[in-house]
Design a protein that fits this description.
alpha/beta; 8-stranded parallel barrel; 41% helix; binds acetyl coenzyme *A; binds 3-methyl-2-oxobutanoic acid; binds magnesium ion; leucine biosynthesis; manganese ion binding
Length: 521
């Protein structure tokens, strides 16, 4: 990729102006300052801080940002009206580098219906507004609002007028997100070629996302000769939003082979900016949003996880670090495979033998079928439970319980006892009581239940339950744990785990007695 100045694309961020025009996205002065600081740290070229005439609050925001921000140009929007321009000029006065961005619509529809102005009057307004802006700063941008629905001859005349009056940046917005990439590129090519003084200005894109084409159109505009892109963090903005800055920056960075342009943006700051804008506006970022969505660097399917573990480039076209994400995530779920599961166990500090691993994986898949999100805590609970019961003499094979609010509960239990299957159907006052009675029936022991505790491993009604059972027998006290997404099964597993520990204690003291009890059933 060539890093010549001719191929440098300036990033003009309008999160604080067009972004704030999203219904419900209003920001306070302090919030705007916070965002402006992050934009400056990202090395954004121009920050459009607001529309100074809109309100005293907007004026103050532009003015404070102009006072504080030193490394980015600070800009205010203004209509083609002297009052607007004077207010914008006043607001940006303290800036190290200040810009006035003045605009007027040039499409037949907007001129006739909205402005109710003849085209000639619009041309005069362009000259007057740009000239006035130049009395405040030599950095003046002019925009042809609704450029993509403007007749090309008139657009060229308007652009020529603006440049003659002193505009150094010419913005050709797709105000209503109507253009296609080919059309947008052709418009830039035509204007740059036909306007005699076009070499005296930098051309700019400004795209809205009504057809989901804002980013594609912006990149097409760059291919057509634009060297400034107007965009917002997370793509927030009027209606369906503006072109998303993070997508433009990373598209140019990742595909320099076919788009030989560059920005000076520090892309590692992208995630921080995205999170801040989302928090401040309350607009959550969709999980599958490019670059900054929670799933942008997350892999759940086993084949992808296996690929990423072998070489991240198999399924990642940019590194998470390059956008400020610490690392990619292998999300554990029903689509995960053995490679990812083994990697997760290693991360969690487990080393399992082959049989235990296969059994844990089987239970993990079962859990995945039933539970939407599998957290690390679920896997820890599952593996601990499996490891704890692996070498045990007694295990719960299956348990079905039936209970109602006004009657006895029934438990239908199958257990493995020293390798043999044993079954029973038993009653109780509730499902847990029935399950415990069933276990006692099969093992032929009557330990005293001292404690029964349940807690949810993670959040949600599909969370696994982790149960603790404390049993006492002949002065020996043991705790057993069990985990399962079915609370009664978790309780039964905990009970049986405690019984196994009692048997171990018995064996240590009186091996014959332990053997007798188990053989009794
Ligand atoms: C495509 C865009 O994003 S453009 C920017 C849009 N952003 C905003 O509008 C947010 C801030 N806006 C505001 O606070 C207000 O609209 C203000 C302060 C700018 C104007 O408020 P008001 O004077 O009450 O006018 P109102 O908003 O109702 O109507 C807009 C007026 O500006 C005129 N106008 C619109 N664009 C321009 C322009 N570029 N140059 C000159 N006049 C314009 C309209 O024709 C209309 O004029 P009219 O009152 O003679 O009919
Ligand atoms: C003010 C202009 C640049 C604008 O936001 C648009 O046309 O979308
Ligand atoms: Mg806009």
């Amino acid at each position: 990729m060539s890093h010549s100045e001719a191929n440098r694309v300036r990033i003009f961020d309008t999160t604080l102006r067009d972004g704030e025009q999203s219904p419900g996205a209003s920001m306070t002065l302090e919030e705007k300052l916070q965002i402006a600081r992050v934009l400056e740290a990202m090395r954004v070229d121009v920050i459009e801080a607001g529309f100074a005439i809109a309100s005293n609050g907007d004026f103050e925001c532009v003015n404070r940002i102009a006072t504080e921000i030193k490394d980015s140009t600070v800009c205010s929007l203004a209509r083609a009206a002297l009052g607007d321009i004077d207010r914008a000029g006043e607001a940006i006065k303290p800036a190290n580098s200040g810009r006035i961005h003045t605009f007027i619509a040039t499409s037949p529809l907007h001129m006739k219906v909205k402005l109710q102005m003849e085209p000639e009057a619009v041309i005069e307004a362009i000259h007057g507004s740009v000239s006035r802006a130049c009395t405040f700063t030599d950095d003046v941008e002019w925009s042809a609002e609704d450029a993509t629905r403007t007749e090309i001859d008139f657009l060229c005349r308007a652009v020529e007028t603006a440049i003659k009056a002193g505009a150094t940046t010419i913005n050709l917005p797709d105000t209503v997100g109507y253009a296609t990439p080919q059309e947008y590129m052709d418009m830039f090519k035509a204007v740059i070629e036909r306007v005699p003084n076009s070499d005296k200005a930098i051309f700019s894109t400004h795209c809205h996302n009504d057809l989901g084409l804002a980013v594609a159109n912006s990149l097409a505009g760059v291919a057509g000769g634009a060297r400034q892109v107007e965009c917002t963090i997370n793509g927030i903005g009027e209606r369906a939003g503006n072109a998303a800055m993070e997508e433009i920056v990373m598209a140019l960075k990742t595909r320099g082979d076919v788009m030989p342009y560059h920005t000076r943006i520090k892309s590692e700051e992208i995630m921080r900016a995205s999170k801040l804008v989302s928090t401040v506006t309350g607009f959550t970022v969709q999980n599958n949003k490019a670059i900054v969505g929670a799933n942008a660097f997350a892999h759940e399917s086993g084949i992808h996880q296996d690929g990423v573990l072998k070489a991240a480039e198999t399924y990642e076209i940019m590194t998470p670090e390059s956008v400020g994400v610490t690392k990619s995530v292998l999300t554990m779920g029903k689509h995960s495979g053995r490679h990812a599961f083994a990697d997760k166990l290693k991360d969690l500090g487990y080393e399992l033998g082959d049989n235990a691993f296969q059994e844990c994986f089987r239970r993990f898949k079962e859990l995945g079928d039933r539970k939407k999100n599998i957290y690390d805590e679920d896997i820890v609970a599952l593996v601990d439970d499996e490891v704890a019961t692996w070498a045990n003499r007694m295990q719960v094979i299956s348990l079905n319980t039936y209970s109602s609010s006004n009657g006895e509960a029934v438990a239908n239990l199958t257990m493995a006892i020293d390798g043999d299957k044993a079954k029973t159907v038993t009653y109780g006052s509730g499902p847990v009581d029935a399950a415990f009675n069933a276990i006692k029936d099969l093992i032929g022991m009557e330990p005293h239940l001292q404690l029964f505790q349940v807690h949810a491993v993670t959040q949600g009604t599909d969370a696994q339950a982790e149960c603790t059972v404390r049993l006492e027998e002949g002065g020996r006290t043991v705790n057993g744990q069990g985990a399962h997404e079915d609370t009664v099964t978790a309780a039964a597993r905990a009970y049986v785990s405690a019984v196994n520990k009692l048997l171990v204690k018995r064996e240590k003291k009186a091996p014959d007695e332990a053997a007798k009890v188990v053989a009794a059933k």
